[in-house]
């Protein structure tokens, strides 16, 4: 044993490392059953305009496991992506989202709300993604313009052509796209030129130090100006303070999402928050 393992292998016996390997393995095994055991839920985080009026919401996946407790998306989404489990899970998210849009149609107070759903590029690349999504829209009889798909630029990297084709096809029927975490990746500007985007979502990392960082203010101002001249809507994510909101507004950003307006909450709380 000591012959094979030199100093490099010491890490194998590092209890912290071992723990995280075990944690990963159990997340993977448990995630397989999460759907059928109804352990997944959607939470909703409000998106507002300058008058603090709700214009829509982002659907955010929550997993409550009976013994592990709530597992954050950052712990299970990457595993879901790697294992392919994101496909059935992502379909469940879209189905639940369409169902919710349908429910909101029943009241004039909520009928205008646009629901933003995070989709993995792995999902979009499925052969039947378009037909399956159009099937849901048909089944729940919802206006396609109330569904917004958030895609993350860092995930786009390869096979962009196919992804663009799918996006255009969905765009033609009225489904809109927002580029999530804008600015955090490497090739944002390329995508801006080539993808049918209705909205950019400025990454939270540019918002959090807005008050103290003049370079962040410059970047944010530049993103907003650029988006405006391209006729693309801008929303800021992770807005936590009124000072941040004011700075954003002064630069022309009029759509916001963040703890300042509401944390992601279950649907009962969300509907209460609206009234
Ligand atoms: P995201 O799409 O960028 O979502 C925004 C994240 O920021 C959410 O974390 C939200 O709870 C958090 N957040 C919102 N406002 C604030 C704020 O004011 N301050 C701070 N500090 N955080 C704020 P969450 O829910 O943990 O989700 C993390 C990521 O997991 C999401 O980032 C998204 O990439 C992914 N995700 C969540 N649900 C889904 C899903 O249904 N499908 C896929 N493919 N990915 C999902
Ligand atoms: Mg998002
Ligand atoms: Mg985001
Ligand atoms: Mg983000």
TrEMBL record:
Coiled coil: none annotated. Keywords: Phosphoprotein. It comes from the Bacteria. The keyword Phosphoprotein applies. Transmembrane segments: none annotated. The keyword Transferase does not apply. Residues 24-275 form the EAL domain. This is EAL domain-containing protein. It comes from Undibacterium cyanobacteriorum.
């Amino acid at each position: 044993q000591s012959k094979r393992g030199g100093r490099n292998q010491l890490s194998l016996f590092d209890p912290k490392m071992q723990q995280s390997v075990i944690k990963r393995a159990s997340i993977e095994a448990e995630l397989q059953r999460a759907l059928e055991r109804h352990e997944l839920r959607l939470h909703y985080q409000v998106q507002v305009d300058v008058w603090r009026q709700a214009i829509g919401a982002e659907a955010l996946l929550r997993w409550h496991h009976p013994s592990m407790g709530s597992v954050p998306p950052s712990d299970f989404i990457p595993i879901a992506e790697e294992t392919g489990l994101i496909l059935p899970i992502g379909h469940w998210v879209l189905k639940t989202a369409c169902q919710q849009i349908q429910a909101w149609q029943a009241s004039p107070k909520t009928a205008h709300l646009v629901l933003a759903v995070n989709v993995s590029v792995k999902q979009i690349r499925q052969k039947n993604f378009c037909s399956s999504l159009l099937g849901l829209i048909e089944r729940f009889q919802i206006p396609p313009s109330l569904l917004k798909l958030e895609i993350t630029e860092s995930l786009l990297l390869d096979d962009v052509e196919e992804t663009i084709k799918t996006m255009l096809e969905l765009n033609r029927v009225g489904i809109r796209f927002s580029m999530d975490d804008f600015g955090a990746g490497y090739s944002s500007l390329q995508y801006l030129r080539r993808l049918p985007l209705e909205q950019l979502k400025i990454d939270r990392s540019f918002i959090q130090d807005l008050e103290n960082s003049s370079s962040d203010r410059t970047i944010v101002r530049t993103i907003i100006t650029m988006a405006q001249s391209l006729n693309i809507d801008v929303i800021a994510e992770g807005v936590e303070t009124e000072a941040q909101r004011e700075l954003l507004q002064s630069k022309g950003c009029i759509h916001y999402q963040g703890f300042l307006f509401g944390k992601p909450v279950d649907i009962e709380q969300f509907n209460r928050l609206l009234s």
